[in-house]
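Hello Y.,

Per our agreement to keep a running log of every chain we model this quarter, I'm adding this entry. I've kept the format consistent with earlier entries: sequence first, then predicted structure.
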Amino acid sequence: MASLIRRGEGQGARISFTADFHEIVSGRPLNGRCRVRYDPFRIVPASDYARPTPLTMYVVFHPVADAAKRYVYDIPYPLRANLWDPAGQRLTINQWVPLPDKCDELEFWFSYESRARRKVWDSDYGKNFWIRFPLNDLHVDHAEITSARDSGQSGQFQVKISTVPAIDTVSIRWRPIHSSDVGRHTFDLLAEGSTDSTKVWTTGSKGIAVPLAPSLVFDILYTAKGHLYTDDNEGTWYVVGPDTITGSIAQ
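Predicted structure for the entry above:
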């Protein structure tokens, strides 16, 4: 029996705000904290590269707090254009952020006042950045491709995912692993039951009709409290092949 690989298990939580305006979540909170990495190239104007002023990070810990906690950072070095790095491996600000008990959702935004006294915001155009940790929110219990009974050229893709009760909807996006030119297909999973601690979502008894490809890759879209989140297995997607069943996900 093969099993899918779940990235980030056993690793501490990290949230990266990269220079190319991506927000990347990895790991899960350990010891009540997460690490936040922020690339100042996101917010500092080129006119301030030689002598940047401090920037401010705001964090709201939902649902346990309504007011934002404020962190102010000095940037003790000039920002040279040749050091711009989309992966954020060079000039980043690092901060360990304590997480209150029962906090399951974080809201971030950032501000910077330039030397010309102009206020700059990094806030997803006023919507702010909403962060959850997929390793805490969901688990892929089962993923399988089986041959359709009426054809050796097609298959049935079945998925079962368990989530925490706060999750409102779950969808998967899939495509054949060797068909990058084929657009991803989206399927909304069905709510099949719930308990006080878990909701169960599946593709239904018929599954999804798919080509009988060597393997499929998929990621997961889910919503909570009106916000959309993605679990793409930390950028590697989930891979499932014909007659592969997962009862648990191993690293």
